[in-house]
Amino acid sequence: MAYSGTYKVKNQSKYRGNADKVVYRSMWERHCMKHFDFDPSVVSWSSEEVVVPYFYEVDKRMHRYFVDFLVTYQNGTTLLIEVKPKKETTVPEYKGRKTKRYISESMTYVQNANKWKAANEYAKDRKWEFVVWTEDTLYAKGIMKKGYKPLKPLKKLGKKTINRSKTNTRNNNG
């Protein structure tokens, strides 16, 4: 289940872009945003403000890749950061059958590889570094605590109908 929402930037002077429209698409991204917002070593950061064109080998067309973060640190390092589950960073395991799941995971892997190749070149041209952070990276950097498991989002409730005849019954016999 994907977690998404709008992040309210607290240190707006550090954010590069429209600080009123910062969207996270996972709780891992939200943790990163909070970290960048409050980490004193971060000079500036942005979310999905860098767009990298890339060629997708599957459909043989050009696409646009909105990289998760651009972060500049006090030491002068600038990182282009993508946050992904570790399982999406490796070739899917082939178990003897081409199931729908295997095909989907394979296409996701190829798409990610195409995006990351383009992002790496884009970053090098600007003397930045492109990195992919997984859950292991977030734990190692202290951005997330080991064993973190977010609660499932609450289901939105529809309008409840109340049977008033049962809620307002009273014994009128005495």
Characterization of this structure:
28% of the residues lie in helices and 23% in strands. The protein contains four helices and eight strands. The protein has helices at 27-38, 100-125, 135-140, 164-167; strands at residues 5-7, 22-24, 42-47, 51-56, 61-66, 69-73, 78-83, 129-133. The relative contact order is 0.14. By secondary structure, the chain is α+β, with helices and mostly antiparallel strands. It has a single domain (5-167), classed as Trna Endonuclease, Chain: A, domain 1 (3-Layer(aba) Sandwich). The protein is globular, with a radius of gyration of 22 Å. The strands form three sheets. It has a four-stranded mixed beta sheet with strand order 3-6-7-8. The protein has a two-stranded antiparallel ribbon with strand order 1-2. Residues 161-174 have low confidence and may be disordered.
Give the N-to-C terminal Cα separation: 55 Å
Tell me the helix content: 25-40%
Can you list the strand order of the major beta sheet? 3-6-7-8
* Class computed from helices, strands and strand pairing: alpha+beta
Question: How many β-strand runs?
Answer: 8
> What's the structural domain tally?
1
Q: How do the helices and strands follow one another from N- to C-terminus?
A: EEHEEEEEHEHH
Search tags:
four-stranded mixed sheet; Trna Endonuclease, Chain: A, domain 1; single chain; alpha+beta; 8 strands
Condensed summary:
This protein has helices at 27-38, 100-125, 135-140, 164-167; strands at 5-7, 22-24, 42-47, 51-56, 61-66, 69-73, 78-83, 129-133. It is α+β, with helices and mostly antiparallel strands.
